[in-house]
Amino acid sequence: MKRILLIATGGTIASVQTENGLAPASTAEELLSYIPEAREFCHISVRQLFSLDSTNVQPEHWIRISEEIREEYSHFDGFVITHGTDTMAYSAAALSYLIQNSEKPIILTGSQKPISAPITDARKNLMDSLRFASRDGVRGVYLVFDGKAILGTRARKIRSKSYSAFESINYPVAAFIDENRIIQYVDGEDRKGTVRFYHHLKPSVFVLKLIPGMEPEILQYIGERYDAIIIESYGVGGIPFYNKRNFLSGLENLTKRGKIVVIATQVMLEGSDAEVYEVGYKAVNSYNVLQAYDMTVEAAAVKLMWIMGQTGDFETVKEMFYTKVSQDILTGALPGKTVSEE
Ligand code: ASP
Questions:
Q1: What SS3 class is residue 107?
Q2: What is the pTM of this model?
Q3: 144 C-alpha to ligand 1 centroid (Å)
Q4: Which of 14, 172, 240, 320 could form a disulfide with 24 if both were Cys (CB 3.0 to 4.6 A apart)?
Q5: Is 103:194 a contact under the CB 8 Å cutoff?
Q6: Rg of the Cα atoms in the chain
């Protein structure tokens, strides 16, 4: 039987009703007590790392989870992390960058209803995750939810209440899990070398969602406080330059000061292609501006934190940003290279 480490961090799955609303309280052992049948197909050990609503989860917690997995990596065949759903897509992306080329499964899961609720998705999600983590050949970071395994770099929370809370963005769902039947379509890791753990993130990343009427001075303000800014612009990507609300000089200032600027899109599917229109072409061809292409904003933001944890040199940032890690970027990706091979 496979040895699985269950790492509990809080979230709705572990929450109980308090006078101030739901708050995480159930321990890892208590979660497991709801699915005794899981011990029929795997050996499970538990760690309670913290007990937080994922709204309170920060980059330091991602490092903490990754360090725990690093310490226990050789002792277990797979890892299941219970986590709140609200920031789970960010944590899944973060673990995908902090732990690369894992030959073992690292699965994040949670639920929309507490495991103690009479009607809940928690037991299914936890069982599915343990089953997926016990399966031969599964490697890398996934988010398992509502019968789907989604690559950690491709997940987004798209529903705030329904059980089908997550979707795989610009990439196929990697596997469908229906009790014992698991149909896996996609393998997450390209299998380049052995597992590599990273230890540093620089969380100095701001995401700016453009809306019509926004004043361009905001760029100056952000530049004083952050080292990287992702502009969630419109459609395939464009930066307003019309009349009194011209963002281009602000963009020029930021890039001249060595700030990393990435154009992304607020449209959920299909990504950016900023050179299509004049509004995007000017921005990406006049300044040192990157674009997210088909990456999720969640993955792009965390990828920048990971890259800036290692370098501040623009050309290196650019090369790393466009280098595929766990299938995070396909359009615009540099062919045949991974950072960890260097
Ligand atoms: N607020 C909760 C959390 O993210 C929501 C959930 O887990 O579904 O921790």
A1: strand
A2: 0.96
A3: 15
A4: 14
A5: yes
A6: 20
